[in-house]
Amino acid sequence: MRYRTGIGYDIHRLVEGRKLFLGGIEIPYIKGLLGHSDGDVLLHALCDALLGALALGDIGEHFPDTDPQYRGADSAGLLKTVKGLVDKSGYRISNLDVIIIAQEPKLISFKPHMKEKICGILGVDQGVLNIKAKTNEGLDAVGRLEAIACWVSAALIAGE
Ligand code: MG
Description:
7 strands; 160 residues; 5 helices; CATH 3.30.1330.50
């Protein structure tokens, strides 16, 4: 196979008393994402998209939330581990497209920093990654400020 593609999805609850980590950076906001790890919904969806492209299951199988070693885990470390699996597969990342769905906070000004951080973790050119941020038009849990969700599509291409 010359190309492989995968999709990833994740959603985490927004709660008071937690810092908000998204795309590997801390974003100032009154709430943060609940999770066994740092709750970085974007990096989790990205891990799942890459694991999907490799046909290697999902993030819960690789980093079980019942395992104390992942309590408070920095999701950048999880993504690095998944990138190691990509490297071993003989494929490389062709492109990544991200949709963050957050009613608040406004994310547009943080996108360049997220891009820099994620591309740094993955060791890829910034032209490989696109980040889109949108609200949920006030609808459902995301619209009620109860959660942030994220979708990622990943494409891998064979060869170094
Ligand atoms: Mg998650």
